[in-house]
Write a structure and sequence with these properties.
The protein has 4 helices and 11 strands; from the N terminus they run αβββαββαββββββα. By secondary structure, the protein is an alpha+beta fold. A hairpin with a 2-residue loop joins strand 6 and strand 7.
Length: 224
């Protein structure tokens, strides 16, 4: 039973220490992880960059349990941007007949494909169907908890064609840093406990006793 306790304490201690260190190195003291695409452009006549928010997931598990994920864009040509989140069907209606660029994240590679069109879109800031929206040089919006059938769109704030921007995804949580510190502390404490129990176990084991061996005197020869 004592050996089992030693092994369990050691394994859990190692696991917690590794998880805590990973949390500290990945999210830092601010509890924030920022990921960004390279600069993405539409064609000269393209009016929007469009991406399914499910395809923009960063791979951070359980993001909605203790934190918040946001998605945004950073202007690469000095033009003010508009970003918006809405139900995919509404975005498709808004962009019907408009040339835009579909953005996809394939593993770590960002790819683009142009959807042709001839119509000019209405100014995005005047539309009422957006669930969440923002504008500026680096606008961002919080992702909804239910991200199915939700589309993220990047346009120039005035609706003119020629978008040049990078897409950003950020995860932040006030709990990451203290939880990571706690994991490291508890993990190291369990490792120390495992070492102490191992030492105590080795001391308590019965030591093998030496068997005394009698030395017989040599026989004296008869002729002596």
């Amino acid at each position: 039973m004592r050996i089992f306790s030693i092994v369990v304490s050691a394994l859990v201690g190692v696991a917690l220490t590794i998880v805590g260190i990973m949390g500290l190195t990945t999210f830092g003291s601010e509890g924030r992880l920022d990921l960004s695409s390279p600069a993405l452009q539409t064609t000269e006549d393209g009016s929007a960059l469009v991406i399914d928010v499910v395809a923009a997931e960063t791979g951070v598990p359980f993001t909605e349990l203790i934190g918040q994920t946001s998605i945004g864009a950073v202007s690469e040509n000095g033009q003010r941007l508009f970003v918006g989140l809405s139900e995919t069907g509404e975005v498709n209606k808004y962009l019907e007949g408009v040339e835009f660029t579909v953005v996809q994240l394939d593993g770590e590679t960002w790819t683009t494909a142009t959807v042709p069109g001839l119509r000019s879109p209405k100014p995005p800031l005047k539309q009422k169907f957006w669930d969440r929206r923002a504008s500026g040089m680096s606008p961002s919006v919080e992702m909804p908890a239910d991200r199915q059938a939700t589309t993220f769109l990047v346009m120039q704030a005035d609706g003119n064609p020629g978008v040049d921007a990078s897409i950003t995804v950020a995860y932040s949580s006030a709990w990451i840093f203290p939880l990571s510190i706690a994991a490291v502390v508890i993990g190291l404490a369990l490792l120390a406990l495992a070492a102490f129990l191992g030492y105590q176990y080795s001391r308590s084991r019965p030591q093998p006793q030496e068997v005394a061996t009698a030395v017989l005197p040599e026989k004296v020869g008869r002729g002596s």
